Amino acid sequence: MAAPDTDPPAPPRRTRNPELHRRAILEAASQAFAERGYHRATLRDIARRAGVTHGSVLRHFGSKESLFLAAVPGTRDIDALAEDTREPLAARIARGYVHRMESADGNDTFVALLRSAADDTGSAAALYVAMQERTDEVYRRLLDEHDLRHRLPFVAALLVGVTFSRYVVRAGALAEMSAEELTADLTASLEALLHGSSGTGDAPAGQGAGDGDG
Length: 214
Known about the structure:
This protein is mainly α. It is about 70% helix and about 0% strand. The radius of gyration is 19 Å and the shape is globular.
C-alpha cells in the first residue's frame, strides 16, 4: 500500500528579510513544482518549505501562476543567454539547456509542467504560452521578424520534444546520449533550424544580433 502523501516538516521560520524570503520562496517553489507538478503543488506547501507565511508568498508573487513562471529556470536565465555573445546563438541555447536540465537531474520545473499537462491541460497550456511569451521578448533582440515567426516556434517544439524524451519518459536514443553528445547534436539541430535554408521562397534567415560567425 502506498505511503500517504504528507507535507514535509516546515523548516525554522526565517528572519524578516524580503530578498532572502524571495530567494527562499523561489527555491521552495522549484522543489515543490518539480516533485508534485503544477496542479498538485500548493502555495501553502511552498510557504512551509520556504519558512515564510502564505501571505508572504502572495505579496512577493501575487499568484501561483506568477510564482511558477518566476521559478522556471529557463525564463530566469534567458537574459543571460542574450547578453553572452561569445558563441553562436544555437550553441548558447544548447549549452544552457543541457547544463540546466542535467544539473536538475530531471527534476526541473519545465519537466513538471510537461508531466502536469495530462492532468490539467488548460493550466499547462496557459503556462506554456506565458513562458513562450516571456522568452520571445528576449529573442526579439536576437532574431529578425521572419525567424521569430517561422523558426522560433520550431526551436521551442524541438526543446519540448527533447525534454519529453530524455527527462520525462527517459527512453530512446536521446535518453542514452551523454551530456556532451546531447549538447553537440542539439547545437547542430538548432543551427539548422535557425540558420538553414527557409525552403519557402523567402529570403534565407540572417543571423540574429549578437550572434557569432558560426
